[in-house]
Specification:
Elements (H helix, E strand, L loop, with lengths): L4 E4 L9 H15 L5 H5 L6 H11 L6 H19 L11 H10 L3 E5 L5 H7 L8 E3 L12 H9 L7 E5 L2 H9 L3 E5 L10 E3 L7 H8 L1
Parallel strand pairs: 1-2, 1-4, 2-3, 4-5, 5-6
Helix pairs in contact: 1-4
The protein binds 6-O-phosphono-beta-D-glucopyranose and magnesium ion (MG).
Length: about 220
Amino acid sequence: MNTKAFIFDLDGVIVDTAKYHFLAWKKIADSLGFEFTHQNNELLKGVSRVRSLDIILELGKVKAPQEDKNRWLIQKNEDYLSYLVDMDESEILPGVMPILNYLKEKKQLIALGSASKNARPILEKTGTLSYFDAIVDGNDVSNAKPDPEVFLLAAKLLNTKPEDSIVFEDSVAGVQAANIGGMTSVGIGEAATLHEAKYLFKDFTQMDKTFIDNLIK
Ligand code: BG6
Ligand code: MG
């Protein structure tokens, strides 16, 4: 059997943290006096913290000096982290653990490819850290998704070619990054949003072992 690299995004793929990012950004938008919707939030998925703030300020037509931006970035992250204090394995999304365990059983390589700078503590809190053979997060890359840097680095650390790498992603930017990087993109979410993904599942409970077996072949 072949060995492939299975690269997981974190927020919205392994853990249900997208809702906390949304709440923390919404608080910033509320304080600045404009609306921030779930639809707006799709634009931020997979996008770095700094770029996310710029997008939000563009949506609200707010121009602000860097000093204010820095303060909001700190506020957002502190608020986001406050939601994670009691985080444990109950926040792992349905179907993720069976797939991680199956990949381990099949001796496949597993990496994290996330834009978040909070990735490691989240993996620790959810008890998933030891599953990963390589971790690439927002602290390791300078180009945000849809740039493929995060996934290419993960594949490199696993000594695997892009064409032998499979990426699980819930964001448009992340699916595009996987495609641009020459990897197999697997969207986790809605077809309306993730139509660029090569394969699509509503969540991991819909993915069976045969799908993984076919990727490994
Ligand atoms: C991505 C999320 O995984 O990480 C984005 O989808 C988030 O919503 C980005 O902005 C950066 O995360 P953090 O934890 O470094 O602010
Ligand atoms: Mg995500």
